[in-house]
Design brief:
Blueprint lengths: L14 E6 L4 E5 L2 E8 L12 H8 L19 E6 L2 E6 L3 E8 L2 E9 L19 E5 L2 E8 L5 H17 L9 E4 L12 E7 L1
Parallel strand pairs: 5-7
Antiparallel strand pairs: 1-2, 2-9, 3-7, 3-8, 4-5, 4-10, 5-6, 6-7, 9-11, 10-11
Length: 203
């Protein structure tokens, strides 16, 4: 019931708030280990979130874990999706992260789950059975972040990205990459109770 009502009961990535204003937060995220899959959405009937099942199978979210230990890995939040300039990202341990980029005229999508913090190095995480799943490390990074509720439609996200970029530039902060969309709740959560964030990497 908590998931329908928007309560976040899974592990979320560790970060420190460096600065906070009415417009945004500046967060410094700790290093993390990610599981990711890159694919052409047409392989999944055009669904950008099509790689979700591949990653969910790896961690054992839907039954027997498809990794060599085999070890069930706890789900985290948010799911992250990267979009813009030909890219989009989804993140789910929560998070799931999805990144979209163009390769040879086709839009490829990379979806990522942030693995629980107990995995400090890529080699500590169970090895995937499915060769499409890649485990990698991400170092310390900084983001300008805006939180919002409701359904993360393309228009709602685009408006917040534009506003956040302008606020960051106004305050002398340098944007160094495409935005991420972090979604903290499953699709069956009531829309007014959902938590979403737009995250823009900064120097």
């Amino acid at each position: 019931m908590g998931m329908v009502l928007g309560r976040i009961t899974v592990e979320t990535p560790e970060y420190e708030v460096i600065q906070s204003s009415n417009d945004y937060e500046i967060r410094k995220y700790a290093p993390s280990v990610l599981a990711e899959v890159t694919y052409d959405p047409s392989q999944f009937d055009g669904k950008k979130d099509g790689g979700f099942m591949v990653l969910a199978n790896y961690i054992g979210a839907l039954g027997y874990p498809q990794n060599t230990k085999p070890e069930k890995i706890a789900m985290t939040a948010p799911v992250i999706t990267k979009t813009g300039g030909g890219s989009e990202k989804i993140a789910m341990t929560a998070p799931v992260v999805t990144k979209e980029g163009s390769g040879e005229g086709e839009k490829m999508v990379t979806m990522q789950f942030v693995l629980p913090a107990k995995y400090k190095k890529a080699e500590e995480a169970p090895k995937p059975v499915d060769e499409r799943v890649v485990i990698r490390e991400e170092g310390v990074r900084k983001y300008g972040v805006v939180k919002f509720g409701g359904v993360a439609t393309e228009q709602a996200v685009a408006e917040r990205v534009e506003k956040l970029k302008k606020s960051l530039e106004r305050d002398g902060l340098k944007v160094i990459g495409e935005f991420l969309l972090a979604r903290y709740n499953p699709p069956w959560t009531l829309p007014p109770l959902r938590t979403n964030e737009v995250m823009i990497p900064i120097e």
